[in-house]
């Protein structure tokens, strides 16, 4: 079964509103969580990396004041898209790195199912 | 700079075998991952190689040669559901994943 969950899976909102996406690691503690964005027919693009209890590290070109990341615990990270605009419409995917003993004893990166955001 | 190369698209026949190659140049190496991504969905983990050699997992196998900066994903007994993009990613010295652009695999009956 899934080891990383994301909520919601779909969001449609009006321009100017803020949207919060939750990412949870299920049954394992994630040492690090990652947020990616994927535009149609393009590769995943890393937006930011976060460790529990510390500030996220943003990739070049990603506005930290627009994409707020809160990594409150070892199993939960949230991404808030503030004042969303149509160009923010994309597929947002979180990923958590940790050890899921039942699957693999090596630290592995597992992906959430993604959240599709459409800003009107 | 860091670079991951894999073919853009491949076509294979149902029941056959296909090999998807990946070459990389990265600052440091902490393992190579293969992911499968169906259209409109998030990637799912397929394999992880950190030592040289072949790792077999059912119909899928992954090979790594660190000295050559080379990996391949081998898919046997292809099924129509294997039609997807296959992403090669290398974890660099900072434990960040460097992604290839993905190989779109088309399976024909």
Helix/strand order of chain B: EEEEEEEEEEE
Query: What structural class is derived from the secondary structure elements of chain B?
Result: mainly beta
Oligomerization status of the protein chains: heterodimer
- Proportion of residues in helical segments of chain A: under 10%
Largest sheet of chain A: 7 strands, mixed
Extract low-pLDDT stretches of chain A: none
The value of Rg of chain B in angstroms is: 13 Å
Order of helices and strands of chain A: EEEEEEEEEEE
Total E-strand runs of chain A: 11
If helices are DSSP runs of H or I spanning 4 or more residues, what is the number of helices of chain B? 0
Shape category of chain B: globular
Q: How confident is the prediction overall: mean pLDDT of chain A?
A: 87
Number of helices of chain A: 0
- What sort of overall outline of chain A do the alpha carbons produce when their principal axes are compared? globular
As a percent range, the share of strand residues of chain B is over 45%
What percentage of the residues of chain A does DSSP assign to strands (E)?
A: over 45%
Distance between the termini of chain B: 40 Å
Largest sheet composition of chain B: 6 strands, mixed
Distance between the termini of chain A: 34 Å
Task: Produce the secondary structure layout.
The complex is a heterodimer of chains A (120) and B (109).
Chain A: E1 4-7, E2 10-13, E3 19-25, E4 32-38, E5 45-51, E6 57-58, E7 67-73, E8 76-81, E9 90-100, E10 104-111, E11 115-119
Parallel strand pairs in A: 2-11
Antiparallel strand pairs in A: 1-3, 3-8, 4-5, 4-9, 5-6, 7-8, 9-10, 9-11
Chain B: E1 3-5, E2 9-13, E3 18-25, E4 32-37, E5 44-49, E6 53-57, E7 60-65, E8 70-75, E9 84-91, E10 97-99, E11 103-108
Parallel strand pairs in B: 2-11
Antiparallel strand pairs in B: 1-3, 3-8, 4-5, 4-9, 6-7, 7-8, 9-10, 9-11
């Amino acid at each position: 079964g899934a080891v990383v969950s994301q909520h919601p899976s779909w969001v449609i909102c009006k321009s100017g509103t803020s949207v919060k996406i939750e990412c949870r690691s299920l049954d394992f503690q994630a040492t690090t969580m990652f947020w990616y964005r994927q535009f149609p027919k393009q590769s995943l693009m890393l937006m930011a990396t976060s460790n529990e209890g510390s500030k996220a590290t943003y990739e070049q070109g990603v506005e930290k004041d627009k994409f707020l990341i809160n990594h409150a615990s070892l199993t939960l990270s949230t991404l808030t898209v503030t004042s969303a605009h149509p160009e923010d419409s994309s597929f947002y995917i979180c990923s958590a790195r940790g050890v899921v003993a039942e699957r693999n004893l090596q630290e592995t990166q597992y992906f959430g199912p993604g959240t599709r955001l459409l800003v009107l | 700079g860091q670079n991951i190369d894999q073919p853009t698209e491949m076509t294979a026949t149902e029941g056959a075998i296909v090999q998807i190659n990946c070459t990389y140049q990265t600052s440091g190496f902490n393992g190579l991952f293969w992911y499968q991504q169906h259209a409109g969905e998030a990637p799912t983990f397929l394999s992880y190689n950190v030592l040289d050699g072949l790792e077999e997992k059912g119909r899928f196998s992954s090979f790594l040669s660190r000295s050559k900066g080379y990996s391949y994903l081998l898919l046997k007994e292809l099924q129509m559901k294997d039609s997807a993009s296959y992403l090669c990613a290398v974890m660099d010295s900072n434990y960040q994943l460097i992604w290839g652009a993905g190989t779109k695999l088309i399976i024909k009956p």
